[in-house]
Amino acid sequence: MHSKPQLLVWITCDGVHIDPASGKHTILGVFSNIKARQFPVVHPFMVWFLTLTDVQPGTHRIRMSIGLDPTSLAELFQREFESQSPLHRINLINELRNCRFERPGDYSILIEVDDEPILATSLTVSQ
Question: Disulfide engineering: 65 pairs with which of 9, 73, 84, 96, CB 3.0-4.6 Å?
Fold first, then answer.
């Protein structure tokens, strides 16, 4: 029986810079909520940075969904990524462009790897 992937880090930020020489990641502009003057609002750009471990070797699919109603979330995006070993830490930089928020509230976020939920959290969007 394989263990399911473990989420070590989840950060919402403005950007991630990768140093070409060292490969180190620099996280820029960390935030945990969004303020808007009027609704609907479109947030032009943000990054969801994740670090996973315990991911079995091979190709996997990550999916991220969001919505005001936790029972009916809309898929933001999905993509494939590779794992070499369950011992590796895999950093995933997920760029989200033009996210639209219809009204203020606590938006539920679900992150899944191979259809297994690994994180259920929320993002507050306020006026």
Answer: 73
84: enclosing H helix or E strand:
none
What is the C-alpha separation between 86 and 52, in angstroms, rounded? 9
CB atoms within 10 A of CB 119: 14
**Domains, the chain, ranges and CATH?**
6-126 (2.60.40.10)
Buried-state track 84-111, b at ≥16 Cβ within 10 A, e below 16:
eeeeeebbbebebeebebeebbebbbbb
Which residue type is seen at 60? H
Per-residue pLDDT reduced to its tens digit, 2-20:
778 999 999 999 999 999 9
Q: Are 76 and 62 in contact (CB under 8 A)?
A: no
| CA 32, chain centre distance (Å) | 12
Contact by Cβ (8 Å): 124, 78: no
Q: Which of 56, 48, 36 minimizes the C-alpha distance to 101?
A: 36
pLDDT at 1 over 90: no
The Cβ-side half-sphere exposure at 62, using a 13 Å CA radius, reads: 22
Whose structure tokens read 């507050």? 124
